[in-house]
Design brief:
The chain is of the alpha+beta class. It has one domain: Aminopeptidase. Helix content is 30%, strand content 30%. The protein contains six helices and nine strands. Strands 1, 2, 3, 4, 5, 6, 7, 8 and 9 form a nine-stranded mixed β-sheet that branches. A hairpin with a 5-residue loop joins strand 1 and strand 2.
């Protein structure tokens, strides 16, 4: 995908682009600034400085598209589209009669920095990702679902066409959500 300028409702500009090898420090700072609340909603992998550094250093050998929103040198958003299907996701969806296929169904995980939430960034990125991938894959599967109590998140995904497919219990109840194309 090309680098694209995203303008928030308040006029704040950012660049949407692929995560780069030299983003380790900026990604680390992004992870470190996330509030406890945001961290509780987004956990596809460790959100630590060490993981950010390792992730960026190994980008060339990974097969997972990762994108960021950047304001200047600061990362304000992070998005994962993973083609490899986790056994846990596949099993949960299989119980709903849906067979997820690696490469055809992408696990999706978005995160926006606290100070930049509810400004329209995520909606614009979602539209761009849908437009880019809808003819290339069968669906986006929300990685780990979303917490049942996260009504804003559930509404956001539903607004963009995601459907709820039951859920599962951890220390809280999570709702599985999927966006089918075509």
């Amino acid at each position: 995908m090309e680098i694209t300028t995203i303008i928030a409702k308040d006029g704040t500009k950012s660049k949407f682009r692929q995560l780069a090898q030299d983003d380790g420090l900026a990604l680390s700072e992004f992870f470190n600034k996330l509030s406890r609340q945001t961290l509780s909603l987004f956990a596809p992998h460790p959100l630590t400085s060490e993981f950010a550094t390792e992730l960026c250093a190994n980008l060339l050998i990974q097969n997972t598209p990762r994108f960021v929103l950047a304001c200047g040198e600061n990362i304000i958003g992070y998005f994962i589209l993973q083609a490899q299907m986790s056994a846990h996701e596949a099993l949960r969806y299989e119980q709903h009669g849906i067979v997820l296929k690696a490469g055809e169904d992408l696990l999706f995980a978005p995160c926006i920095a606290d100070l930049f939430q509810n400004k329209g960034f995520a909606s614009q990125v979602m539209v761009m990702l849908i437009n880019h991938y809808q003819s290339r894959v069968r669906s986006f599967v929300l990685m780990g679902g979303t917490q049942e109590t996260n009504l804003l998140g559930r509404h956001f995904y539903q607004k963009h066409g995601f459907k709820e497919y039951g859920g599962y219990q951890t220390d809280i109840y999570n709702i599985d959500m999927r966006l089918c194309f075509g």
